[in-house]
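Comment thread on ticket #2218

A.B. wrote:
> Attaching the input chain for the structure job we discussed in standup.
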Amino acid sequence: MHEPVIGIAIPTWRGHLFIAETVQSALDQTGVQVRLHVGVDGADRQTAEVVQNLAGKDAKITIRGAHCGWVLNNRRTLQEACANANYAMLLPHDDIIAPDYCQRLTAELQANPACSCAYTDIQTFGELDATISQPEAKGEKLARMETMLQNVFAAVSLRGVMPKGIAEQVSLRRNLSGDYAADTLLVFEQGLLGDLRRIPEPLYRKRYHRTNTHTGWSKRPRAEQLRDITSHCAHAFGVALRAAPAPQDRIRLLDAAEHRLDWLSETLGDTDPREKRRLAECRALLKRQALAPS
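C.D. wrote:
> Ran it. Output below, let me know if you need it in another format.
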């Protein structure tokens, strides 16, 4: 039996301190054929020099001509990794995967043809020691979207393995909130296209440090965080509504979207009158989305 061919995309920007270890964990995969694609965002000489030394290790390295940012570099590198592969995945430049990570996940996909992405739990290290998990989303499309609106907040399956045809359809997209939760919206697109299946073992290790992209989100001024949350909920609801052509289904998802807004806004603590007005405006927007013609 031929081993599955998996394209592993490692987008990087200022990753010179970590990327060699990340690349080695990708090259150490067992039971699969790895085709490694490293996308170095432009104007990053230090990282470019490190990855140039990896050129002899079965890695295709693309150095962008100009700095295009986290979202676009991730998108381009993932698409490059889909070429001549059966499966594809994103691996941030500071994370590490167990040697059997890809083998276990491709086997899960082969056993479940309706699955759009398989993933494992994440064990964090560095400045945080914790286990992060993402609930599964299975069954009919509407039920998957309801589950995701209510329960999926950490973008664990962003790092999962996808069939090539799925990886070619999903995409990180820029937004006006500093790209806040762009990774979670990609996860919602995965859920639209099929089941999300979890292997409840921490075969993926995520490094926490001061320059993590998501770390900056939590350091924004409170008003910006509220803007980010409300904008994200509207975007997530818009993706979910693609699964709900019938009016009663859209109202069903509205309840789930309002639950998401409530949960995320509670992370800010007590809200003042101005913030409450902003949340009320978001609820009104969600309702308009639900009632708009499909």
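A.B. wrote:
> Thanks. Noting for the ticket: The chain is about 45% helix and 20% strand.
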